[in-house]
Description:
alpha+beta; 2 domains; eleven-stranded antiparallel sheet
Amino acid sequence: MKSKVISVLILSITLILVSLILVSGTYDDLSTQDTSDLETLRLSKPKPKSEWITFSGDLEGSQEVVGCCLNAGPYPEYTMTLSDNFPEEFRGEHTGNIFLNNFGRNMPWAYKVQFWWGGENEYFIEIRGGEVHLEKRTKILTVTFTQEDTCWTWDPSGVEIIIFIEFTLIRDPQVK
């Protein structure tokens, strides 16, 4: 019985103090959360990963790329040279955007490469397939594409052409 009286007394005093604080307006002066730690964490986010991406074969290019290649972007800038196996308007060196992704075992292809350039009048290529090899110690990813893999091209008018090309893609996390 004595413990019930003490509990009711403590609860009553707590409610009276909370009521006084709310009525007197001192509640507005109380700091509810210190956000300085949150701002520090937000400002100290790790920088996007940098890697060296190299293409050789019918696709040629080799450069450092930052922040490649999350599903929702960003789609970093890349300069690539396309061989004579491409339609005439696709051949040569182009600076555009790149997307690369490994699709694992659930897809009928192992890897996808997309590259597009040209602003509003975009040229676009997409290659699906490849044989993936990951060097576990160095974390260097090598994908070999053969003519059995499929390459689609789209020009600004929307014409789609399928071509057969061969190239190797290397993603090296140790920037040169």
